[in-house]
Amino acid sequence: MEALFTTGNLVQAAYFAAAALFIFGLKRMASPATARGGIVWAGAGMLVATLATFLIARDNALLMFVALGLSSALAWWSGRRVAMTDMPQMVALYNGMGGGAAACIAAIELLAIANPSSIEWAEGTLGGGHSRVVLLLGVVGGLIGAISFSGSLIAFAKLQGLIDKTFRFSGQHLVNGALFLSTLAIALALGFEQVHSTAWVVAFFALALAFGVAMTVPIGGADMPVVISLYNAFTGLAVAFEGFVQQNPAMIIAGTVVGAAGTLLTQLMAKAMNRSIANVLFSNFGDAAAGGAGEGVTGSMKPIEGADAAVMMAYAEKVVVVPGYGMAVAQAQHKVWELCQKLIERGVKVRFAIHPVAGRMPGHMNVLLAEAGVPYDLIMDLEEINAEFPTCDVALIIGANDVVNPVARTDKSSPIYGMPILDADKAKNVIVIKRGKGAGFSGIENHLFFLDNTRMLYGDAQGAANQLIQGLKAL
Predict the structure, then answer these.
(1) CA within 20 to 30 Å of 368's CA: 116, 167, 332, 417, which one?
(2) Is the pTM of this model over 0.85?
């Protein structure tokens, strides 16, 4: 009986429990109604895994406490301060840390192989007698983790505005390909134990980190959310591979789940833009300077005053609100919901239309609306809401651009041709809240703004929503 309660068995049981909590938490995150609880369950799983790790690393307990204390304090501080508009770059940064951690595990193991006399082998290390397959998995995990780490840092810098240029040159793809093949060749040499020295290990990780940078710097800012999601998948795979090396089921299962979720999310976002992942990684579309192709616009933008727009909405039967990044920037979600409550009190049917890539990351608008207290049954996705636009009296566009651009259906020369969009142009009247007359994040002119049934309410989203509220109160 006592043999069942050895430290090793307790640790393995704890890791399996942690993995189960991760999966259960992720499942609950699939619904806005249960997402908060899902985060708590997943956090409990991480706590269980962390406590289990202390059981097998008691000699390093002090260092672990210091590391956990500093990182937890930093995460708490940054999490409290970050604005919702900055959430994509925060996700990129945290995701990069995960990839970097996986790369560090591989680096330690590879350096141990290169210097066996100076390292005391521990159970579950590459040098502790693992098979060639596990050795290769560890090396590949290090490669993927290093790429994810440096690439995610570049994505963070681009979204944060620290890097405001997109670096391209002739033959760049060939250079990047040669860099990757060189890195892969060293990885295979390490994996098949053809090279052993510290210099080769350092060269391997230096090239992997350089490739992550070279892969990301040519990609424009508008495509960064897709890139972040892809690197999220990379990080998950890297962690899973290193889990095999460490014989840690929690790492294997959690990494696999993260990798699968990141892959599905990347495919979803690419599909929502009617583009392949290769097109995102190797084309210039994401750079605003590369936009502007397609048919020229005709007509002019027609302004409207807040009071007139309020009257139009007050006497409508159905209003569909399309939120976008402009609402997030202005932090106007509470004012927008107050406006909609006023309309609902007057008997107006109100719905919110969410495009899969609205904002800067999937679910961005859903989180903002949930924060404002919008009931989930009023929030509809693209497939559900598009059939309602032809019977909609007013479509209110709040800071959205490319996701409502009708050229995606009509202009084969446009870079966004074929991208599924919200059919806001089919509404009887369209009111667009916009700060200025410029193009959207991708740099493509929006033909919706020039249609006969469209009126422009200029100003930031919060100020414009307040004008509409005051206009309704005056009726």
Answers:
(1) 417
(2) no
